Each structure stands twice: as structure tokens, then as C-alpha cells.
């Protein structure tokens, strides 16, 4: 019966075993994972948009090649994670429909505009940096397909983070205007990148996700880890550190001010600067690609008939 199944399930989790698609799992576990994995996949796909905005304006051929490769990696991550989520019994079509109807979420960060070339570097450094901080522990997520997907995704994100940082490093060695541009990108994107970790722990009941080992650390723990890693990197770039971010000798961590949670929830609910733009771009892509999918299906059908004959 269910209680017995549930006890066995939890015992396997406690013993650090992976749960696989055909194993028994509580409905809540399945639902939580479909939600988180589909949101994650949507973030990868929508995340291509702010960067795609700069492909035609990359300053050199080398930067353009790196940017295109990175965007292609994000597409790969999205498809990979959708496939992982499908093993839980929800189709990719359903998940994409939920994104386009506004029912499913994707990371708040992608509703902020990329206004200058320095923003593209800052996205690599801060956004991919925050993503790695969050995703390294997901390599030990209890759901096997998700955990395994994260190993490759994290390796690629690590390259993304370094290319972003390296491009900013080149800019801060450049003209005063370039340095100013990097500072401006940092000032605008630092706080939204901290919001990627989700609402504060104080908002949350003790997490079932942690008991199920979907999550290994709380949102605030990971946010702190990211701040501690990022501030020395900002200092190395010669950037001015935001007001209120100070090293605390007693805790051995950086203190930082409370984030603007009203802004966070407004962006989650669809009121960010770019929410409408992002969803419209995705809907348009699906509509305009319909003929390609139809042609591919017709071709596959024709091959099947020819093979049968
Ligand atoms: N943006 C949008 N929604 C967010 C959010 C954010 N930054 N942070 C939290 N939320 C949503 C949650 O999804 C949840 O919504 P729901 O219950 O209505 O679906 C609600 O706010 C409450 O938050 P919780 O902290 O309770 O939610 P979680 O336990 O799921 O934790 C999370 C949030 C840490 C983001 C977690 O879902 C997670 O680890 N997700 C996997 C990683 C991921 O999605 N990363 C996306 C980042 S970008 C990326 O990877 C692309 C790369 O190219 C940079």
C-alpha cells in the first residue's frame, strides 16, 4: 500500500540511491519534479533570447562565435532537460503549452533587458555563475535523469561563466567608456542575479524538497555562497562594490541588504520589463516553425511507407 511504498521510497532516498523513471514515487514528488524541471528547461530556452539580441552586434568574429556557441549550448540544455522531464510522464508539448499560456514559469532573470555589450559578459559571469551555484548540488538530486543531465550542463555552464568573465576582463582593461559600461552592467544585473535563487527561506515552510533530496541546500544558503564567490571576482575586475555589501569577520561571509522582494514577485507574476516580449517571441517561434514540424512528420511518414513497400 501507499504508506509502505512511501516508507520504502524515503529509505532509498536516505540511502542516497537514485530514483529512476519506472520506480514507484509519491505523486507529490513527481509533480514537484515536473514543475522544477520544466521551469528549468523553459529558463534555458527563454534564456537564449536576451543573448540572441546581440549576435548581430558582437564586437569581433571571435566574440560572435563564442556567443553563438553558448546560445546553442542553452538550446541543448533545454531539450535535454525537457527529455528528462518527459520520463515523469508529461509530454514536451504539454510543458511548452504551459509556458506559452503563462501557467509555467521560467527564471525571473530573463525578463531583464540586455542593453549593452557589457550586459552580455555580465550575463555569462553572473547569470551562468548563479546557475552553476544552484545546479552543482542538483548533480546529486535524487531523481536520476535530472542528476545525470546536470553533470554535462554544469560543465558547459562553467565555460559560459568563464567566457563572460574573460570578456569583462578585456573591457575593464580598455577605455574609460568600456569600464563604465561594465560597472553599469554589474550595478543593474547583480541584484536580479541574486533573485535567481528564489524567495528567502523565511517565506518558506520546512521544505519537502529537501527531505526528498531534490534540493540539497536552501535558497538563502546558495545565494550566500554565490555572493561570497562573486564579490572577490568583482573586486578583481576593479568594480565598485554595491552599497551594503560588506565582509563580516564574525560570520566569514559577506553581508548584503535585503533584496527587493516586491520587484521579484512582480517579475514572477509577469510584470517585468521583458515578460511580454519573451513570451511573444516564443509563441511566434512555435507558430512560424509549424510548417517545419509538419514537413518533417510528412517526410517521416513517407519514409515509413517506402520502407514497408
Ligand atoms: N524565477 C521565477 N520563478 C521563481 C524563481 C525565479 N528566480 N525563484 C523561485 N521561483 C518560483 C518557484 O518556481 C516557485 O513557483 P511555483 O511553486 O509556483 O512553481 C515559487 O517561486 C516559490 O519558490 P521556491 O523557492 O519554493 O521554489 P523551488 O523550491 O522550486 O526553488 C529554484 C526555486 C531554486 C529556482 C529551483 O526551482 C531550482 O533549483 N530550479 C532548477 C534550476 C533552474 O531552474 N535554474 C534556472 C536558472 S537559469 C538557467 O539555468 C539557464 C542558464 O542558461 C543560465
Task: Write out key terms for the chains shown.
309 residues; 13 helices; mainly alpha; two-stranded antiparallel sheet; 2 strands; binds 3-hydroxybutanoyl-coenzyme A; globular; single chain
Characterize the structure shown.
The chain is mainly alpha-helical and 309 residues long. The chain is 66% helix and 2% strand. The chain has a two-stranded antiparallel sheet with strand order 1-2. Strand 1 and strand 2 (253-255) form a beta hairpin. It starts with a helix and ends with a helix. 3-hydroxybutanoyl-coenzyme A is lined by residues 35-36, 39-40, 43-44, 47, 74, 105, 107-108, 127-128, 131, 134, 195-199, 204, 209, 215, 219, 268. One of its GO terms (molecular function) is phenylacetyl-CoA 1,2-epoxidase activity. Keywords: Oxidoreductase.
The count of strands amounts to 2
Strand order of the largest sheet: 1-2
Order of helices and strands: HHHHHHHHHHEEHHH
* Strand proportion: under 5%
Number of helices: 13
Whole-number radius of gyration? 21 Å
Residues in helix, %: 55-70%
- What compounds are bound to the protein? 3-hydroxybutanoyl-coenzyme A
Terminus-to-terminus distance: 50 Å
Describe the main β-sheet briefly.
Answer: 2 strands, antiparallel
Name the overall outline. Answer: globular
Unreliable residue stretches = none
Instruction: Tell me, rounded to a whole number, the average pLDDT.
Output: 96
By helix and strand content, what is the structural category? mainly alpha
Amino acid at each position: 500500500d501507499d504508506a509502505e511504498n512511501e516508507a520504502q521510497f524515503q529509505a532509498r532516498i536516505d540511502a542516497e540511491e537514485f530514483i529512476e523513471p519506472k520506480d514507484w514515487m509519491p505523486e507529490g514528488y513527481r509533480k514537484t519534479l515536473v514543475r522544477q524541471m520544466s521551469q528549468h528547461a523553459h529558463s534555458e530556452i527563454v534564456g537564449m533570447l536576451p543573448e540572441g539580441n546581440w549576435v548581430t552586434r558582437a564586437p569581433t568574429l571571435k566574440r560572435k562565435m563564442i556567443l553563438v556557441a553558448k546560445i546553442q549550448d542553452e538550446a541543448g540544455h533545454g531539450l535535454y532537460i525537457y527529455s528528462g522531464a518527459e520520463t515523469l510522464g508529461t509530454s514536451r508539448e504539454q510543458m511548452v503549452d504551459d509556458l506559452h499560456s503563462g501557467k509555467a514559469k521560467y527564471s525571473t532573470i530573463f525578463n531583464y533587458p540586455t542593453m549593452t555589450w557589457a550586459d552580455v559578459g555580465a550575463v555569462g559571469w553572473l547569470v551562468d555563475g548563479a546557475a552553476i551555484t544552484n545546479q552543482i548540488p542538483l548533480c546529486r538530486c535524487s531523481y536520476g535523469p535530472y542528476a545525470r543531465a546536470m553533470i554535462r550542463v554544469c560543465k558547459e555552464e562553467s565555460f559560459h561563466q568563464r567566457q563572460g568573465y574573460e570578456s569583462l576582463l578585456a573591457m575593464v582593461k580598455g577605455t574609460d567608456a568600456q569600464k563604465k559600461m561594465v560597472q553599469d552592467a554589474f550595478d543593474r544585473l547583480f541584484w536580479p542575479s541574486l533573485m535567481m535563487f528564489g524567495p528567502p527561506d523565511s517565506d518558506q515552510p520546512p521544505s519537502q524538497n529537501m527531505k526528498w533530496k531534490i534540493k540539497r541546500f536552501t535558497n538563502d544558503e546558495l545565494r550566500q555562497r554565490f555572493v561570497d564567490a562573486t564579490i572577490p571576482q568583482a573586486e578583481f575586475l576593479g568594480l565598485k562594490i554595491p552599497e551594503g555589501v560588506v565582509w563580516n569577520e564574525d560570520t566569514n561571509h559577506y553581508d548584503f541588504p535585503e533584496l527587493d522582494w516586491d520587484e521579484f514577485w512582480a517579475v514572477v507574476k509577469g510584470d517585468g520589463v521583458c515578460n511580454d516580449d519573451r513570451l511573444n517571441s516564443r509563441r511566434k517561434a512555435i507558430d512560424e516553425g509549424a510548417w517545419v514540424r509538419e514537413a518533417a512528420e510528412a517526410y517521416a511518414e513517407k519514409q515509413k511507407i517506402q520502407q514497408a513497400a
